[in-house]
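Can't attach files on this board, so I'm pasting raw text. These are the components:
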Amino acid sequence: MKLHTLNLAVVLLVTGCAGINHKTVPLRPTYLLPEKGAAHYKAVERKNALIRAHNQAIDAKLCGLRYYRPAPYLLVYSTGKGTVSWEIHYLPEPATLATAKPYNFLASLSAKLEFTEKGTLSSITEEADSTAVPKAILEAIKTAAEIAAKGVAALVKEGRKEQDHLFPPPQLYKVIVENGVVSFQGGAVEINEIRATPVRN
Amino acid sequence: MNTFPRSFALVPLIVALSGCTRLKVEPAKRGEIADGLVYALPKPMLEVRPSSDGSMQAKFIFVADPDRQYAIRASSTLSKHNLTIDITNNVLRKLEWKPDATAVLSQAVAVAAEVAKSVEKVREAEEKAADEKRKSQKINCDQAAKEVQKAEDAVTTAEKSRQVVDDGLKAIEFQLARARVNNDTNKIALLEVEAFIKQQELRRNDSAVSDAKTKLGEAEEERDRICAKVPDYTPRMATGSSAQSTSTATNEKPSFPMVWGPILFDVQEGYRAKDANDLKRRHLEIRLTPVKLRGASQPQFPTALTIETNTPSKPPTISWSMKEFEFYSASNQESVVKTRLLMEDKERRAQAATGDAQKTARLDADAAAASYTTEFQRATNEPVRLLLSSSKPVKPLAEVKVVKVAQGQMGSDPVSGMLRQVITKEGSEHVVLLWSNVPMGMYALRFHYPVGEKLTEDSVFFLVK
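---
Top answer:
C-alpha cells for the assembled complex are below.
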C-alpha cells in the first residue's frame, strides 16, 4: 500500500503542466508636456522622468510578451462638406500593459498568439470581452458623440464664413465607461486649423 | 522492500534528465545591444489629409514605438521547441510556441540535429527565395528595358515622319515665296492652302513626337523603378522627355506650385497639469500634437499641376457660340452698321481651371465699320497658335489685326510679324487662319468689315483653336 502511494507521488511529481499566464499591469501615465516656455515645464519633465523610471521598473519585473489592451476612443472631424464624421476606434491603451507568458513543465504546449497592427491580442477571448461594449453603452456613446460632433459642426460653420479652404482640426476623446456612466476625456489639439490648397476655378 | 528506494531514486534522475524550455521577453533599451529578436509595441498616430476638392480624410496609422521595445529569446535544455515569430514593421503580429520538455537526453541529440537541419532548411529556403526574387527582378528589368527600346524606336519613327512633313512644308513655302514675287494670286491661294494643310499635318506630327517622348519618359521611369531593385543595375541617362527636364534643371531651377500637405498627429495620452501645483492631481487628457516637418505643423510641398509639364502644351480649344445677335442692316449711303453680339465662351471655366488662358469677348461697332473685337489673355509663356474658321462661306475679311492691350487700352498698331491670313476659294470650306506665336499678355483681335457689308450670323461665327 505504501509502495503504491509513493509511486503515485512519483507519477504526480513527474507529470508536467503547461499553459499561458496573462497579466495586466496598470502603468502610471506621464504628464503631457506644456509649452517650452511654461514655468512648470521643467517640473513636469522631472515628474515624467520619475514616472518613467517607475514604469520601467514594473516592466522589467514582468515576463512574457507585452501587448496593449484596446480601449474605445472617439474621433470627430469635419468632412469639409458641411457635416462631421464621428468614429469609434479601438486604440491601444498605453497606460495598461498586458503580458502573456507561456509556461510548461515536463509537458508539451502549443501556443499561438496573434496580435493586431495596433499591438492588441486578437486570438484570445479577452480582446473580444474588452471590445464588447454593451449596446446600451454604445447608444450612450452615440448620443454623447453627437453632442461632441455638434461642437465641431459649429466650428466648421464658423470656419466656412472666414475661409472656404480652412478645416477645423480633428478631436480625439477617450471613451470612459465607469459604473455604467459614459464620459469623454480629451479633445485637446495643438493646432487651430488645417489648410487645403484649392483648385483654381 | 528493495523496490521502494530504487523507484524513489529515479525521481530526481528523471526530473534532472527531463529538459526545460524557456521563452524570455525582456525590455530592450534603445541604443543598447538586445539579446533576442526585438519587437516594438505600436504607437497610434492620426493622419489627416485635406483634399483640394474641399473634403478631408482622417485615419489612424500605427508606427513602432522605439521606447517600448522588447527582445524575445527562446532556449531549450534537453528538450525541443518550435518558435515561429511574425514581426511586421517591427510590430509583433504572431507568435507560435511549441515547447516539448518531455524529451529525455537521448532525444536531445536528435532535437539538436533537427534544429540544425531546420535552420539549414530555413537558410536554404531563404536563399532559394532570394535567388528566385533576383531572377524575377532581372526578368522584369529586361522586359522594362525592351519597352524602353520600343519607345525609343517609336520616337525615332515619329521624328523621321515629322522631318518628312517639315521638308515638304519648307518646299511649299519656297514655292509660295516665289509665287509672291511673281504676284501669281491663284497659285498663292493654292499654295497657302497646301501650306495650311502641311502645317496641320506638322502639328499632328509634333503631337505624335511629343506623345512618343512622353511614353519614352514613362517607360524609362518604369524601367529605373523596376531595375533599381536589381543589385548590379546602373541607371542610364534618360533619353526622352526626362532628359529634357534634366537639362532644364541644370540650367535653371524650375518653380513648382506649392500645396498644403497632410498633417500627422501624435496621439498623446497623459495627465494634464496647468502648473506645478497641479502635478499632484490626475486629470486625464488626450491631446493631438502635430508632428512638425521643417518646423511647420502643416508643411507645404511642391507639386505639378499636369503631368505634361515638360512636353509642349497643346493649343487651347475654345468654343464660341452666339448668345444673341441683332443686326441692323444699313445702306451704303448711311454707312452705318450697328451690331450687338453677346458671345459666350463655353469653355471659359475649364480654361481658367487649367490656368492656361482667360478670355473675354467684346463687340464694338462704330459708324465707320462693323468691327468685332475679342480680347484674350495668355497666362502662360508658351506660344499659342490660333486658328479661326467659319463653317459656312463668308466673304473675305477686310482687315484682321492683333493688337496689344495695355492697362485696359487697346494699342493702335498691330502686333507685327504674328499674323497670317489665308482665304480659300469660295464654295469650299472657308477658313481664316491666324498663325501666331503669342507671348504672355493681353491682346485683342479686331475684325473690320467693309462699310455696308451685310453681316450674317455665319460671318462672325468663329472657332478658335
